[in-house]
Amino acid sequence: MTGEILRVLLLGLQLGFVALLYLVLMRFAGSLLRDLRSAEEAQMSSRSGIGRLSVLESPADEPPNGTTIALGPINSIGRNVNNTIFVEDDFVSANHAMLTFRGRSWFVEDQGSTNGTYVNGHRIDRPVALSFGDELSIGRVRMRLDR
Amino acid sequence: MIGSRSRIAWRGAEFRLLFPILLLVPLGFVITNIALAGAPEVGDLTLAVGYVLLFAGAHLLLVVLGHRGDQLILPAVGAMGGVGMIMLNRLPQDLAGTSAFGLELGMAATQLLWFGVGIIAMLAIAVGLRDDGILRHYKYSWAAVGIALLAATLVLGYEVNGARLWIDLGPVSVQPGELLKIVLVIFIAGYLAETRTLLTSASVRIGFLSVPPLPYFLPMLALFGVVMLIVVRLNDLGTALLFFGIFLTMLFVATGRRSYVLIGLVLFVAGSFVAYRLFGHVQARVDVWLDPFADPLGAGFQPVRAIYALGRGGIFGEGLGQGLVTLGGNLTIPFVHTDFIFTAIAEELGLLGAFALLGFAMVLVFRGLRIAALARDDFGALLAVGVTTSLGLQTLIIIGGNTKLIPLTGITLPFVSYGGSSILASFIMIGLLLAVSHRSGTADRASGS
Description:
The complex is a heterodimer of chains A (147) and B (449).
Chain A: H1 2-47, E1 52-57, E2 68-70, E3 74-78, E4 85-86, E5 97-102, E6 105-110, E7 117-119, E8 122-123, E9 128-130, E10 135-138, E11 141-146
Chain B: H1 2-6, H2 12-37, H3 46-64, H4 73-90, H5 107-128, H6 133-136, H7 139-156, E1 158-160, E2 163-169, E3 172-174, H8 176-201, E4 204-206, E5 209-211, H9 214-233, H10 237-255, H11 258-278, H12 280-290, H13 301-313, E6 326-327, E7 330-331, H14 341-374, H15 378-402, H16 420-447
Antiparallel strand pairs in B: 1-2, 2-3, 4-5, 6-7
């Protein structure tokens, strides 16, 4: 009789032990997943490219309104189709401006355009460092630099 | 930086994971004590409490010292070691032990003592190794240390079970091979970090294979040749296999060249074949692996008993303390406390327990590789890869041997098998991992926000 009770007791304890073992394992899995997710988010924000341009206003719809353009380290902007960013607008020069990522920040430089390049409404006459969120106007096209 | 160094770092994830693990160990002890005594009494829990205090102390020290390293590896180690301690406490205590310094310690108590030594070494490295210059810049000195360790084994070593691995140092016997492993990883990491660009950029093409430029490669190959030669002379096949795996993995990670792996595998197959032909004990191992039942009471005794034990365990296990460890005063499986500890665990905890143990090992390997991926510099990354490969491969080789997946080679299961040198070496490796991850952790804090 006591043997029976002992066997049941042991079985119960053993089940508890294995359950605890797997509880620990589940917690490990949870921690791993959490870490992976946060790492993914960090990567999304930091490494999914160095920046992009959001098109705010584009009368001829080239680049299309409301779209975003992924940026490489060097981007030429102009009405010539050979530019990295092709802009269809009568007030834009063939080779209008240059948008480059140097070291840790973005710079924009006018390429001798007829109507000029504007940053946050001010016409630029030399290479200017851009911050994320700055507005770039080329002809009648307005774009914003985003992360 | 100076402020963040001394500030307390709440290691929440580590605490949440360690807590249930530290409950697990006393529970396991209680179950074994009840089963062995055949009566519902709690029994002696001194060792379990000691184990809990060791890990709690390690956690607390890391918190107080503001360590920002990985928080999952210490709990993973605690879980593996905990299952091991429960098993070692359950096995006959006269299998091993120390009688040094006027102390008479049984097997489990000795193991706990080594856990203490190992944890102190781990903490010292994790906290003290702020700068890895001492490892990186003196790599040739480390190589010399490694060769000295091997030479010492060759000259002073004595033989246990056909492999000459042990050196007698008064009160304790040590296995220099365990420490050699770490030295080798440090050397290869240092060397590859320095010559990585040369190894990847320049190459000689032979047919469709691009072969590494020999001059850059020679020192490492030479050292590796010496190591392999001596290891083969010492008849320690498990360690040879382990070293080879570590070497190839680190080389691949450093260079990203598949051709190196291919060449390495060809060399491995050729080497295995030659060894099979040349050495009687290699042949014997392979023959036993292919058919242990050919000589079930002689050469095949150990594997046959291991297979029976695994079969008895089944899915749910016989229950802690209820396995057939001894029969008529003799062990059913010889060396159950070192080489065959996994079999004993699988017998008493079943497939479920064995899987859980593998899960903990997997967490350890996963985190080790993650630490490598996040490391700030090449040396740290390679060091982490080497250490992780060493721990993971060791687990794979011995569990594969236990379950008759690959030929059995005597090697320890990290943190689980009985053995001071192995425990100490494994904890030193964990210390290195923590140190590398601490550096990338502080870097994140410095650059982020």
